[in-house]
Specification:
Number of helices: 17
Radius of gyration: 28 Å
Pfam family, one: MZB
Helix content: 10-25%
Oligomer: single chain
Strand content: 15-25%
Distance between the termini: 71 Å
Structural class: alpha+beta
Protein name: MrfA-like Zn-binding domain-containing protein
C-alpha cells in the first residue's frame, strides 16, 4: 500500500484507489464500453443525512453501497465552477469548534434539479459511493467470493434498479437436473465486523472456516455460503470446497463468539483507509441491515435574525475565508481590499472604520489547542437552542413580522379563554428555515450513549481539519407554545421529591451503566438525566403531534418537535416551551395547514382533545401505572405506542423521557401539571 504523508491525512490511504464513479463512467464511454452508467440509485437529502450518510450502508435493489467520505465528494464539486454554501453562521461556528476547523463550510448535497425528466442537467453531480460489502454470494450455486469474481452490469439508461452483479458461469447447486453454465445474480454476503470506535471491516470468511489458518489444499480456496433457513441472525454455514472444512456463523454470535473473532484492524471503508497504528479493540459480528450499524451525529438550528455581534463575527469569517493568505497583504490597504472582496463579500455599506474592525477580527489568531479542547469539553448542545428561545420571547410588533435575512415569519396569536392557563403564549411560525449539519457518526452506540468521547466519533474525512461538511436546508412552518415558568418551577419542585421521579432516576442510572459504552464509566449518570420539565414538555409535544396530525393535513411522521426545557443556570435563564413544526428539504415551504391550527379557537380544541386523550390509553391500566423497578431500566413511564410515543422522524430523544402522569392526573397519581382535561 502506498500511503499518503501523515501531514496531509491522519490515516493510511492508497490514493491510487480513489473513488471517482463519474470519471470512471466517462473513461469507459470514451473506450466504447457501456456496462457502467455510474449512477445506481437516489435518496432524499434527509435520508442521506440521517440514515444513509458517509459510512452507512444503503440498500439498492440488487446490492448495497456505502457513501464515501467527503474527500471523494470534492471530485464531484470540481466539475462545477462555483460551489454553493448554506449560510447559517451560528451553526457553522459550532461545527467549526467541534471539528476543530476554523473556516469550515456548510455545503448541500451535490445535486441539481432537472427541468424535464429526460434532460441532462445535473448529470455531472451525485454522491460518490463504493460497493460494500465487497464479498458476494451467488444465488444460484452459493459461491462466496470477492467482488472481482463477479460481472457488473448497469446498461439501461433509465432503469438503475436493474444494476446488478452476476456470476457469469453458475452451474447451480448439487442435485440440480440441468447444470449448464448460466448467469445468476449475486447478493451481498451479509456479515461484517464492527468495533465501538466506529471501524467496520469485511468478515474474514476464509480465516473463519479454517479456524484462523490458511487452507492446506489451495492458495485461493473456493468458498460457499450455505443458508437454507429462514431464521434471523447468523444462520449461514461457510464451507470450503477445496479442503472440505465447514463452520457455522452462529459461533461468532454473542459474548462467547467475540473471543473467536479477530481484533479490529482500524478500517474506515468509507475513507478507504486504516488507522496508522491499528485499533486492537474487540470486534462484534454485525449484519448488513443492522439498525445499530450507523448513528449520525448531527446538530441543527432554526435560523433566527442575527444580532449585531453575530453579524460582525460572520463578516470576519467571510473576509478571512475569501482572502486566505492575502489577508495579511491587503489588511492595511482598504481601497485595494474593497476591490479584492468585490463579488466575494459585500462590504459596500461598511465605513472604513467598520471595515478595519472586521479585518482586524478576521486576522485575529485562532484559539490555542488547549483553549479549543476546553471549549469542546464544556460545550452543551443546549447552547444552540438558547438564541432561538430568547428571540421567541421578544414581542411581535404588529400582526405579522417577517425577517428578510433569515426568512423567519412570526404572527402573534391571542389566547382563547378556554386554553389552559399554564400555556401563556402562542406564536404562529408561518415560515422558518432549519439547517442541519453532519459532524460524524458512531457505530454500535448512538452519540449520546458513548460518553461524548471524540475518539468514538468516526470522521467524515481523512483530513484532521476538514474544509467542509454536508448540511441540509429545510423550510416549513410551525406553532410555538410557551408555558408559565413559575408554574413549571413549582410543579418541578413537587415532582422531584415524588416516588415516581426517584424510580425514573434509578432506572436511568441502571440504563446508563448497562448500555453506555465502557468509556462512559467516569460520567455521572445524573448529569445525563433530563430534568422533570423536559419530561413534561416532551410528553406535551408528543400528544400535540398526535392530535395535530388528525386535522392539519400532514402525517404524524411529518411533524417534529423542538424542545426548550432547561432550568435556570449560570448565564442561562430557565426555559419551558416547544415548537411543533413540519419542514422539508426538497420543497420550498409547506401548505399552511399547521399554522391555521394556531388560531385561538382551533388551538384550544387541539390542546383540550390532546390532554383528554392523554388521560386514557388502550393499554391501561398497565400503561398508566408503569413504573420502572429494579432490574428494569426503561426510560419512560406511563407512555407507550398506543398513547404517546411517536415515530423516529418526530422525536428528538428516541421516545425516551416520556410520562403521561407528569402531564395529567391518572388513576393513582396526582402529579399532572395541567389541572383537568375535560
Amino acid at each position: 500500500m502506498t500511503a499518503e504523508p501523515l501531514a496531509e491525512t491522519r490515516f493510511l490511504y492508497d490514493a491510487s484507489n480513489a473513488v471517482d464513479p463519474l470519471g470512471d463512467a466517462e473513461r469507459e464511454s470514451d473506450e466504447g464500453r457501456k456496462h457502467n452508467r455510474a449512477k445506481v440509485g437516489s435518496g432524499r437529502p434527509s435520508s442521506l443525512l440521517y440514515t444513509y450518510g458517509p459510512g452507512a450502508i444503503m440498500d439498492l435493489p440488487q446490492f448495497t453501497v456505502m457513501p464515501s467520505g467527503l474527500d471523494d465528494w470534492d471530485r464531484i464539486w470540481r466539475r462545477r465552477d462555483g460551489i454553493p454554501q448554506i449560510r447559517a453562521p451560528r451553526l457553522r461556528q459550532a461545527v467549526a469548534m467541534l471539528l476543530r476547523s476554523r473556516d469550515i463550510q456548510l455545503r448541500p448535497f451535490p445535486w441539481q434539479a432537472k427541468k424535464m425528466s429526460l434532460s441532462t442537467e445535473g448529470n455531472d453531480l451525485g454522491v460518490p459511493a463504493r460497493v460494500f460489502p465487497q464479498w458476494l454470494r451467488c444465488t444460484g450455486c452459493d459461491m462466496l467470493g470477492a467482488l472481482a469474481q463477479f460481472d457488473y452490469r448497469n446498461t439501461h439508461p433509465y432503469r438503475t434498479d436493474l444494476a446488478c452483479f452476476e456470476h457469469a458461469r453458475c452451474t447451480g447447486r448439487a442435485g440440480d437436473r440441468t447444470r449448464r453454465p448460466t448467469r445468476r445474480p449475486a447478493v451481498p454476503a451479509r456479515y461484517l465486523l464492527a468495533c465501538v470506535d466506529g471501524h467496520l471491516d469485511e468478515f474474514p470468511y476464509e480465516r473463519w472456516v479454517h479456524q484462523g489458518q490458511q487452507c492446506d489444499k489451495a492458495e485461493f480456496p473456493a468458498l460457499k455460503m450455505v443458508d437454507r433457513t429462514a431464521g434471523k441472525g447468523a444462520s449461514a454455514v461457510i464451507r470450503c470446497e477445496s479442503c472440505g472444512a465447514r463452520r457455522p456463523m452462529n459461533e461468532a454470535q454473542g459474548e462467547a463468539g467475540r473471543s473467536k473473532l479477530p481484533r479490529c484492524r482500524g478500517r474506515h471503508p468509507h475513507l478507504d483507509a486504516f488507522e496508522p497504528g491499528g485499533c486492537g479493540n474487540e470486534t462484534r459480528l454485525m449484519l448488513v441491515g443492522a439498525s445499530n450499524l450507523w448513528f449520525p451525529a448531527t446538530h441543527s438550528i432554526i435560523v433566527m435574525p442575527e444580532s449585531s455581534e453575530e453579524r460582525k463575527s460572520d463578516l470576519a469569517d467571510q473576509i478571512r475565508t475569501a482572502l486566505g493568505e492575502k489577508l495579511a497583504k491587503y489588511r492595511d490597504d482598504l481601497e485595494t481590499l474593497r476591490d479584492v472582496l468585490d463579488g466575494k463579500v459585500d462590504v459596500t455599506d461598511l465605513s472604513d472604520a467598520e471595515l478595519t474592525e472586521a479585518v482586524a477580527a478576521a486576522g485575529a489568531p485562532p484559539a490555542s489547542e488547549a483553549e479549543q479542547e476546553e471549549r469542546i469539553r464544556t460545550w452543551d448542545p443546549v447552547d444552540l437552542l438558547v438564541p432561538e428561545w430568547l428571540y421567541l420571547q421578544k414581542d411581535v410588533l404588529g400582526p405579522r413580522v417577517e425577517d428578510p435575512s433569515s426568512g423567519l415569519t412570526l404572527s402573534k396569536r391571542e389566547r382563547d379563554p378556554g386554553l389552559p392557563t399554564q400555556i401563556t403564549r402562542v406564536l404562529a411560525v408561518e415560515k422558518l428555515r432549519k439547517v442541519n449539519a453532519l459532524i460524524g457518526f458512531t457505530r454500535i452506540d448512538a452519540m449520546d450513549r458513548v460518553g461524548d468521547l471524540p475518539r468514538r466519533l468516526a470522521p467524515l474525512t481523512r483530513s484532521a481539519r476538514p474544509a467542509w461538511t454536508v448540511a441540509t436546508e429545510d423550510r416549513g412552518e410551525g406553532i410555538f407554545l410557551q408555558l408559565d415558568d413559575q408554574a413549571v418551577a413549582a410543579w418541578e419542585e413537587r415532582i422531584s421529591t415524588s416516588d415516581i421521579w426517584r424510580a425514573h432516576r434509578d432506572a436511568h442510572r441502571r440504563n446508563f451503566h448497562r448500555r453506555f459504552s465502557e468509556t462512559a464509566v467516569q460520567v455521572d449518570p445524573d448529569t445525563r438525566l433530563r430534568p422533570p420539565r423536559y419530561w413534561l414538555v416532551h410528553t406535551l409535544a408528543h400528544v400535540l403531534i398526535r392530535e395535530l396530525a388528525m386535522t392539519c393535513g400532514y402525517s404524524a411522521a411529518s411533524l417534529s418537535e423542538r424542545l426548550y426545557a432547561w432550568p435556570e443556570s449560570e448565564g442561562r435563564s430557565a426555559a419551558a416551551g416547544l415548537l411543533i413544526c413540519t419542514t422539508a428539504s426538497d420543497s420550498d415551504g409547506t401548505l399552511g395547514g399547521l399554522v391555521q391550527l394556531s388560531e385561538p379557537t382551533r388551538l384550544q380544541g387541539v390542546v383540550s382533545r390532546a390532554l383528554y386523550r392523554a388521560t386514557r390509553c388502550s393499554s391501561d391500566p398497565i400503561c398508566a401505572t408503569r413504573t420502572p423497578q429494579d432490574p428494569e431500566d426503561f426510560l419512560h413511564g406511563a407512555a407507550c405506542h398506543c398513547c404517546v410515543m411517536a415515530s423516529e422522524t418526530s422525536c428528538e430523544r428516541a421516545n425516551r423521557f416520556l410520562d403521561r402522569r407528569f402531564l395529567v392526573d391518572l388513576p393513582g397519581s396526582n402529579l399532572g401539571f395541567f389541572d383537568h382535561a375535560d
